[in-house]
Amino acid sequence: MLSQVLGNLNKFSTKDTLIDYESFDDAAAYNLNNETILQTVDFFTPIVDDPYDFGRIAAANSLSDIYAMGGKPLFALNIVAFPVDDLPLSVLTDILRGGSDVASEAGIPILGGHSIKDKEPKYGLVVTGTPFKTPIKNSTAQPGDVIILTKPLGLGIISTAIKKDIADKNMIDEAVNIMTYLNKDASEAMISTGVNACTDITGYGLLGHLLEMCKGSKLSANINFDSIKFIDGSKELAAKGIVPGGTKRNYDFIKENISFSNDLEMYQKYLLADAQTSGGLLISIPKEKLDELNSKLSGAKYECVKIGNFEPLESNPYIKVS
Ligand code: CO
Ligand code: CO
Ligand code: CO
User: Fold this and answer.
1) Contact call for residues 146 and 287 (beta carbons, < 8 A)
2) Which residue ranges form the domains of the chain, and what is each CATH number?
3) What global pTM score does this model have?
4) Are the CB atoms for 28 and 19 separated by under 8 Å?
5) How far apart are CA 52 and CA 50, in angstroms?
6) What order of strands is seen across the sheet that includes strand 258-260?
7) Which end of the chain is more exposed for a tag (fewer CB within 10 A), N or C?
8) According to the model, what pLDDT value does residue 22 have?
9) pLDDT confidence of 173, banded at 50, 70, 90?
10) Rounded to whole angstroms, how far apart are CA atoms 230 and 130?
11) How does DSSP assign 91-141, residue by residue?
């Protein structure tokens, strides 16, 4: 939304701007006294009922953009909207405690923030970081690279089931575990191995983020539906029509750029377009480095799977799904 509007404005830039919104990357990069700093901001309305879990999810999601850029977070600021007349302050305390616990897990302090009174609670972080080496962009994938995904999909579908009160406890717990799991270890593994490109999967879904990588890198991608992991129960929910509006909009927005194998059903296409919150990293790595990355990721909580590869771009469609 923002990038569509920003495109109409006169842009002011300085020589120290390294990465801005035009490349649809995860964080901005700026040269400060010959050091690169990364900065990102994200906030949203509650997607789970428990305020503490909401705080943890929002913080992990905000931190993720720094990890996706191959960065080390340094410090954060809280962004808060809260209906102070309608909800007890203890709810806000729980949200902020969740954010603070996840920031501590990431090894960073929250140094301040800003709050406003609003009808619906909203929470997130501004995170400042620095790349370990150089920023890992989303637009530098190479032909022949293997595409790795580090968390299962289906979070948007399960969030919708939670809103409709039809998600069971195991499913909710699993979704919360995934959304609060930091992309820190996956990021450190990819930095030390050396990869060509990375982004994290959030609201635009796997297909949307993959499409940005394809367009930015001027490549096409082949992915295989069966190789992708989905959270237990999410396929069944999607097959029953439990699909968020955002996921359907994602699909409509990108479908021209994708060719799906004929045996894929509509609900399977929606699963691939599903809007995620605090999803995994989507990594583009040279084939010969895959074993090294896999061995570094072997202890990860969620299986990191190879979902496809990049190829030279012949013509649209950018993405082929088999
Ligand atoms: Co991102
Ligand atoms: Co973001
Ligand atoms: Co202020």
Assistant:
1) yes
2) 2-131 (3.30.1330.10), 146-321 (3.90.650.10)
3) 0.95
4) yes
5) 6
6) 197-200, 281-285, 146-149, 305-312, 219-223, 319-321, 258-260
7) N
8) 83
9) very high
10) 32
11) HHHHHHHHHHHHHHHTT--EEEEEEEE-SS-EEEEEEEEEESSS---SS--
Task: Measure 43 CA to ligand 2 centroid, in angstroms.
Answer: 9
* Gyration radius from the chain CA atoms: 19
Determine contact, residues 78/115, Cβ cutoff 8 Å: yes
Q: How far is the CA of 1 from the centre of ligand 3 (A)?
A: 25
Report pLDDT digits (tens) over 221-254.
999 999 999 999 999 999 999 999 999 999 999 9
- Tokens (6 digits) for 255: 């479908």
Partnered with residue 309 across adjacent β-strands are 146, 222
**Ligand located closest to 3 CA:** 2
44 burial type by CB count under 10 A (0-12 exposed, 13-18 middle, 19+ buried): middle
Per the document, the length of the chain is 322
226 DSSP 8-state letter: G
Helices (H), 164-280: 169-180, 184-193, 205-217, 234-239, 245-254, 266-273
Distance from chain centroid for Cα 150 = 11
CA distances from 262 to 24, 106, 312, 320 (A): 31, 43, 23, 11
Q: Which two tokens stand for residue 219?
A: 């490549």
C-alpha 149 – ligand 1 centre gap (Å): 14
Beta-carbon neighbours within 5 Å of ion ligand 2: 42, 65
Cα(114) to centroid of ligand 3, in Å? Answer: 5
- Separation of 270 CA from ligand 1 center, angstroms? 20
Cβ-contact 259, 211 below 8 angstroms: no
